Amino acid sequence: MRVIKYIFFTLLIFLLVDAKISVVNAFYGDTEKANSQELSANSLDISIRDIPGNIINASLFSEENVQPNQSVSKSVLLVKEGSLDFKYKLQAQTDNYAFCNVLKLKVKEDGTSVFEGPINNLSYDSSNDQMDSRHIEFSLVFDEQNAKYYEQTCVFSISFFAWQVDSDGTWGFTDNEQITNNTIKSGLWITDPQFDMIYPNGGEHFKPGDLINITWNNDSGNPFIDNINDIQVVISLNLGPGYSAGHEIAFFAPNTGSFEWEVPSNSPELINDNLKIVIGLTGPSILTQIESDNFFSIDTDYENPPVVINEVMWMGSKDSSADEWIELKNNTDTNIDLTGWVIKNAATSSGNITLLGQIEANGYYLISNYNSNASAISNSINSDLVDSSLSLNNDGNELILKNKTGNTIDKTPTGEWVAGTNSDTKNSMERNNDPKEGANTANWHTCIDDACNNDTYWDTNDGDNYGTPKSENHSKNDKSVQKNKEKEKSKPVDKPKEDIKLEDNNTIMPEQIPEVEEVIPNLEASVSLNIKNTSENIIEENKTGTEETKEPENNDTKNSKQDETEDLVNPI
């Protein structure tokens, strides 16, 4: 029984517990079914690509030797790689503010200009637009010529910052891409400073020996050039057509704005109507050039020509009337190239003889119709130019010597020959030792000196030919030589002073007067006499020859001056 009761109570408890649990779970239920559901994540991603579509992993700009006013353009594609539309902002960062700031940047977005200004100021915000992919063009312009920007480098980067369209960029999805190490290097160029030539600037006329104060404006208007202390100038003379090189005047002279130049007398190539001064200004990274606006000229100094027609054997020799020759003389200490020079009216039918080679300093140049074997000239003398067209009219020719540029250097008188003899003897026409102007008849004479017809110059000693080919002229009838000798004779002769003591009667004995050499008329010589006064009366003869007698002085004064010496000058 006891066991049966135990089982009954156990079953009862179990039934009660089971009834409670059923009450807890008695809730209403519902079932929902979703068809074709997908789970996905949105993203914002951009890339910078070149026009072919390749991602740019290196720099966009890498330019060297950029010159003023040069423009460089590059284009990129800003590509939407993610699912979200975006807005973006362009900015630049630089490392050389001064040079980068003069590089002008222009930006176009899909053909529309969105920015223009220095790289340093680049800032473009597209926040007002919803963006997908875009075409962006960058153009850089360097428009400075200032020497300050020679050989400068600008390194810069361009950033593309993008954010989702419903954000202000401070939250949400963003992306930032950069193009770094963009490089622009400037080169060297000929600047265009405002240097100006002042003088000579065209139309001026000068002669050898003249001093020309070459002047230019050395204020360029560019402080970066003017402040360079070691800027220097190279000055030369543009000789015009026919000359491949100019004539150097000054090399690396200071940029003072002026330079004094003496026109040389030993450079006949400068006798020219087409001259210009050329000045090159050089310095650190500076190279520019200015020149005269128009031509000026250096004219022949006919009183002191560098090369002269020195002797003319216009009548030929005793052997042949065609044995003619012309001699030139170099009056300078410099060799002169005669190539391209001409002697007008020296050839057949008043034609020209064209010269070749050079004439040595203080030397001679001989042009002959015959060579030394065929000519009566000594075989020891060789012509510098043998020209069979040489033909001189016995009635006279005006010979004109012209340099390479066609400017007259020297000439003989017009009309008949002013000197020379064509008779039993053949005497050349010689230039005076002091040549002066060749067109003046007074500056020529006939060669008659005995030394002019010996075997030094001719095949036959003591023959009938008189002349000094390729040698100095030495005729005794050279008026310029005679004048020089007269000048030497006319110099006053000074005698040394001698002490002469006056006798008691205040007279000078004749034997006490110094001898005076013969004096040329109209020439005043002088003798100085030191006369020691021993008497009370002192006679003084002044320069005009008048005499003055001084009254006796009192004893005190007389005694104090008794031993004084006075100089007395006697005009002769």
TrEMBL record:
Any idea where the LTD domain is? 294-416
* Composition skew (Basic and acidic residues), residue ranges: 427-437, 471-504, 540-563
Where is the segment annotated Disordered? 411-441, 463-506, 527-572
Pfam families per the record?
Answer: LTD
Q: Give the protein's recorded name.
A: LTD domain-containing protein
